[in-house]
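If it is no trouble, can you show me the amino acids of a protein and the tokens describing how it folds?
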Amino acid sequence: MSRKLILGAVVVVAFAVSFMVKKTLHNAGSRNPGSVISSQKGAGSEIPHKRIISLAPSITETLYALGLIDRVVGVTRYCDYPPEALTKTEIGGYYDPNYEAIVALEPDLIIMLAEHEEPRERLANLGYNIIVVNHKSIPGILRSIELTGEACGAAQKAKSITQDIRARMERIREKTEGLPSPRVMISIGRNMGSGTLKDVYISGKEGFYDEMLELLGAENAYAGGVAFPVVSGEGIIRMNPEVIIDMVPDMEQNGWDPEMVYREWDAVSQVHAVKNRRVHVFDEDYVVVPGPRFISIMEKMAGVLYPNVDWSELFPIQD
């Protein structure tokens, strides 16, 4: 099983356990994102940290966006972007970090997610500087960029990145305001290549993907209260979404034929999205990573949800 597929499974499990957050309003940045910073030895001081450990791919991507990847000394086994991350010392997994490896690297800052409760307690007890960030929501991601920049002497770069993301979000909102709301189902994991649609993990009404749909003026086809439910073909037929977005990272690396991926949806041919050829596969490596590149996912969503809108002046349309 590929690293990205494993990461996808980790993301689903992590989100299902801890991704229950309030929906984002159109003014997403105004809500308290719940990011926190804690320190035993002055994290956030004026002295830039030079030996940083990241405990999640989305954190590694944030550090890269801030121009801090050269200061990163340790990452998880799932951190493969940017390519430089693969040259860093591996300190274990998302939920099973190797504490001996962390200690050996002598970090002056460790950045983790709110989900990392056990690592936070253990590493805090060892006296390490720790930043805890929230990547469960779009406001949390934006605030985490700012917090990390402030702690590492890159506050201006962080401000520039978040301003750019917010501006891109606002341009999308302006383009979609007042348009009919398509009913959308987002598949984030399934038994690819089986020829069936049994056990399809989808985005529920709470969480990262649902926030993007809301910001896009779209409606989540799933009306239940589970964050990441597992649905059958029959369940998909009952929801009858107008658009299906299928998140399939590493499709090429795993040798999956794009036509095969699309063809599997024929099992629910009576669904509007399938009947009207509005099933869209997103195969970029970052589609399961809730980091700074979420805006690229959102822009691609905008293009497929509103194909009659001229997006060319904002971003290239891909499908």
The chain has two domains: 3-174, 181-305. The domain at 181-305 is CATH 3.40.50.1980 (Rossmann fold). The longest helix spans residues 155-176. The CA atoms of residues 186 and 245 lie 5 Å apart.
